[in-house]
Request: fold
Amino acid sequence: MKALITGASSGLGLEMAKYLAKKKYELILVARNKERLQEIQNSLPTKTMIVAMDLREEQKIKELYVIAQSEDIDILINNAGFGKCALFKDIELKEELDMINTNIKAVHMLTKLFLKEMVKKDRGYILNVSSSAAFLPGGPLMSTYYATKSYIRSLTEGIWYELKKMDSKVSISCLLPGPTDTNFNKVANVMFSVKPMDKKIVAKYAIDEMFKKKLLIIPGYKMHLAKFFQRFCSDKMLLKIIYKIQKKKITKKKEKDTTISQNNL
Reply:
């Protein structure tokens, strides 16, 4: 049994790799940092192939599929992705296009390519990593990121129903975590305004629910409560709440940076 995981050099991707390795799955781990992948490869107890690749580039995505096509993949985990917290007008266009290519195009292409193979075999699992942001009407100060995660959820739900109508044994799931203790906030240049969930717990829960063929996987009771109560708010009210939350993240990050600078004087 083999699993391919993108964004596997840290965070949820790494923890899911460790959990699957304990279950004796062979792994193909994909990320940009080759040295980090080699360290992980040497630390895992199962046969592991590493592929250092930048999934922002369409040609690289095709190359990854060619590499993995002969490996008889049983599980595809589309985990690679990143966000940026700032005013839409202030984020560099190239950075946003890179985000769209990683968060959407890579997920879309890999899902389509591997799904075709899995349907032929009538077996396999696909886990697309989205975010609790996908349940919301939009994300002021993280507009592009929220939009990409909504795309992943919508795409996964549509494919899930198609597979159901086909009576296919192939399963597709969407992971929608809330704040998790990964390096996401560092890349997004923010600090979480609430205590994040343990990434090991989220990773284990995600894999276990994927094997149960759950469509939408939402770790933690807090996210379930938030999803329930948001139905009582208008979209405009939710946008106002989201803006305040994102603003608080930016403020906390600035305060921390200021404190570090002062301590270094």
Observations:
- The first helix runs from residue 11 to 22.
- Residues 257-265 have pLDDT under 50 and may be disordered.
- The radius of gyration is 19 Å.
